[in-house]
Design a protein that fits this description.
The complex is a heterodimer of chains A (227) and B (415).
Chain A lengths: L3 E12 L2 E13 L4 E5 L6 H8 L7 E6 L2 E2 L5 H11 E4 L11 H12 L3 H14 L15 H14 L4 E5 L7 H18 L2 E5 L3 H6 L2 E6 L2 E7 L1
Parallel strand pairs in A: 3-8, 3-9, 6-7, 7-8
Antiparallel strand pairs in A: 1-2, 1-4, 4-5, 9-10
Helix pairs in contact in A: 3-4, 3-5, 4-5, 5-6
Chain B lengths: L1 H13 L1 H41 L2 E5 L16 H7 L5 E16 L2 E10 L1 H7 L2 H4 E4 L9 E5 H7 L8 E6 L3 E5 L2 E6 L4 H6 E5 H7 L8 E6 L8 H15 L3 E5 H4 L1 H39 L1 H9 L4 H34 L3 E2 L2 H9 L5 E2 L5 H27 L3 H6 L4
Parallel strand pairs in B: 3-9, 5-8
Antiparallel strand pairs in B: 1-10, 1-11, 2-3, 2-6, 2-10, 4-8, 5-9, 6-7, 12-13
Classes of the chains: A alpha/beta (227), B alpha+beta (415).
Bound molecules: adenosine-5'-triphosphate (ATP) and magnesium ion.
Magnesium ion binds next to helix 1 of chain A.
Chain lengths: 227, 415
């Protein structure tokens, strides 16, 4: 079973009477354990596609499946539930909850899911260990570097063991050394736990390290290369 | 729940100054309402004391019938059976016999309709209250005869000074007329101005001589054990019923409320006034809470977007804002209650309003010493009201937060 499947997915933004076609009949299939990047120039529709797959946006037409669930006609509450239970998110920046420590942030999604405390703690420390963040578990986000914050964001995204992790330019605010480290760690999680990752990025460092690059141009897939 | 509380607490601590200001806006109405309850209790107690200790007693016994006498009480020809019933009665603290006769008071070429009240000198001293009313001279002592004290307003009208005598022509429908010429030994100003214009007190024996019956009385005035204010209505009503049963239907037992319904009416007038006053402060407190939460939601737009994107339900987000409000209001209500209860407790031992207020309260016939009083239910109401208002105030910001579109919210830059 595919983790993600889109069929003829089209998204047209309309604001103030202006219609912007962002995605045109995109069909994409992501298998479990894949480590895939969506590439393409600015404005090509990468973020739009990630948001649609993550149930943060509704498509204009076409279908989106997450595992066995067709999500395009779910109501907002059901979409929230889907995101909570099946999708992990890493955003570009500013995405930790500033009043929670690294560990609490990591436990956040599991807490919303209602996992018992000891299990949450164990899972969180496990992931933070893998991400070499165990020494910083009790720090507040504002006492962490950008790279460390992004690692906590990754920890939060994967700790609840979602079917899929969506990462929109996770390295955009990091220098190349930290990008390198973060990519290495995500790769490790992908290999150790079999977590499926889907990135949107222009970062050559990411593109180098992924197994598959799907290139978008003006809202259409222009190439799909598996290494 | 723990996460919810942690989030609420830490978010409130993020902008401490604003939270503290909000806290003050919350604690203030609670404390103020507590003080108002306390004042209301104090005023009720003073009104009650003025009415019951000096005039009506908690209960009065008089004889049945003679309804046609209207404002004049019928005469109990032999008061001894009543005294037997009230003496050593376990619920009765104090009682006194009065004989009230309508009369004409005259001095030189002036006169006025008055009420001659025959009172027991020893019993009046028990209460030790009349002393406070004395403007001039003294109250009569046990054994005094042919003496009187009277309202200052009345004596001034008649032009009588202490030491001079007054002519009293009494006339009761059941006994005919009588004449007494006592020496005025004291001028009094009872709390009620009205009373000061027509009250003349004489020793009970003198009054009984006027009706030529040494066992005559019009009423027996009773104070009960354990009664401190109008709130002890249940005790008063209970004893009234029992005493009525004991005495039989030859007599009528009336409570102070029956005798002086206008005092009760005054309470009903004052309480809503306090409430309106307090509600204004609660409303303002609620607005401050709303403003604080609204600002804090606005500042947190991005992270709320993240939280919603991660899959938190909208109700959950609404719940967080509500809990924040309740924590804020809860701490405020607790501190406000502590201060309010503390102040009322301190004031319950009795204190005098400062300076001018004391003069004013005295001038309107009011005991200047206030004993604040608040019930548990009242204290609870103050705090609970703030809670409810905080919940209401959080509804709009909470709703706003829960309706954010995650993607737009995460892009929010503050303008
Ligand atoms: N909310 C919106 N309203 C209208 N148009 C939008 C909106 N969001 C995106 N677009 C448009 O849709 C197209 C695709 O945008 P998208 O953000 O998906 O591109 P992207 O590939 O992620 O670009 P970047 O690399 O700059 O992040 C662009 O033309 C963009 O202007
Ligand atoms: Mg983008």
């Amino acid at each position: 079973m595919s983790v993600v499947q889109t069929k003829d997915l089209t998204k047209i933004y309309s604001s103030n009477g202006i219609e912007t076609p962002a995605l045109k009949e995109v069909s994409l299939d992501v298998q479990p354990g894949e480590f895939t990047a969506l590439a393409g120039p600015s404005g090509s529709g990468k973020s739009t596609l990630l948001h649609l797959i993550g149930g943060l946006l509704l498509p204009t037409s076409g279908e989106i499946w997450i595992e066995d669930q067709k999500i395009n006609d779910l109501n907002p509450d059901k979409l929230a539930e889907l995101r909570l239970n099946r999708v992990g998110f890493v955003f570009q920046a500013y995405n930790l909850i500033p009043v929670l420590t690294a560990r609490e942030n990591t436990e956040f999604v599991m807490e919303l899911q209602g996992l018992p405390e000891n299990e949450r703690k164990k899972q969180a420390m496990d992931v933070l260990n893998t991400l070499e963040m165990n020494d910083y578990a009790d720090r507040m986000p504002n006492k962490l570097s950008g790279g460390q914050q992004q690692r906590v964001a990754v920890a939060r995204a994967v700790a609840a063991q979602p079917a899929l992790v969506l990462a929109d330019e996770p390295t955009a605010n990091l220098d190349s050394k930290n990008s390198e480290i973060l990519m290495g760690l995500m790769r490790k999680l992908n290999q150790d736990r079999g977590t499926t990752f889907l990135f949107a990025t222009h970062d050559p460092q990411i593109l180098e390290r992924v197994d598959r690059v799907v290139e978008l141009h003006d809202g259409e897939i222009s190439s799909d290369i598996k290494k | 729940m723990r996460l919810t509380l942690t989030l609420a607490w830490r978010n409130l601590m993020r902008n401490r100054r604003r939270s503290i200001l909000t806290l003050v806006a919350v604690l203030f109405p609670v404390m103020l309402l507590d003080i108002m309850w306390g004042m209301s209790g104090a005023v009720q107690r003073n009104l009650f004391d003025n009415t019951t200790l000096l005039q009506t007693g908690h209960l009065q016994v008089h004889v049945a019938g003679y309804q046609e006498l209207k404002s004049t009480l019928p005469i109990i020809q032999d008061v001894r059976p009543v005294l037997d019933a009230v003496e050593n009665h376990p619920d009765i603290e104090w009682f006194t016999v009065r004989l009230e006769l309508p009369a004409l008071a005259a001095h030189e070429n002036r006169s006025r309709g008055v009420l001659v009240q025959g009172v027991e000198a020893n019993k009046a001293q028990d209460l030790n209250l009349i002393d406070e009313w004395i403007d001039e001279g003294r109250m009569f002592a046990v054994g005094d005869t042919k003496t009187a004290v009277a309202g200052t307003a009345l004596l001034d009208h008649l032009g009588v000074s202490t030491g001079e005598s007054l002519i009293l022509l009494t006339s009761h429908p059941q006994t005919g007329t009588g004449v007494l010429v006592p020496e005025v030994i004291g001028k009094i100003s009872p709390p009620s101005r009205e009373l000061s214009r027509f009250i003349v007190q004489v020793p009970l024996a003198d009054a009984q001589a006027l009706v030529k019956n040494k066992n005559a009385a019009t009423n027996v005035v009773i104070l009960l054990k354990g009664v401190t204010g109008p709130w002890d209505k249940a005790i008063i009503d209970g004893v009234a019923t029992r005493l009525q049963n004991l005495l039989g239907d030859e007599y009528i037992v009336e409570t102070w409320e029956d005798i002086s319904p206008e005092t009760v009416g005054l309470f009903d007038l004052l309480t809503p006034l306090y409430m309106i006053f307090a509600l204004i402060f609660f409303f303002l407190g609620g607005l401050v809470v709303l403003n604080t939460l609204y600002l804090s939601v606005l500042e947190r737009t991005r992270e709320l977007g993240v939280v919603l994107a991660l899959g938190s339900s909208r109700n959950r987000v609404l719940g967080w804002i509500e809990v924040e409000s309740v924590v804020l209001a809860g701490v405020g209500a607790l501190v406000g209650s502590a201060l309010g209860i503390g102040l009322v407790w301190w004031g319950s031992f009795g204190f005098n309003l400062p300076g001018n207020f004391e003069e004013i309260t005295k001038a309107i016939g009011f005991n200047p010493t206030l004993h604040l009083r608040m019930t548990g239910v009242e204290a609870f109401t103050s705090a609970a009201m703030m809670f409810v208002i905080a919940l209401l105030a959080a509804a709009y910001p909470g709703w706003k937060a829960s309706r954010l579109e995650p993607i737009e919210a995460m892009r929010f830059t503050g303008n």
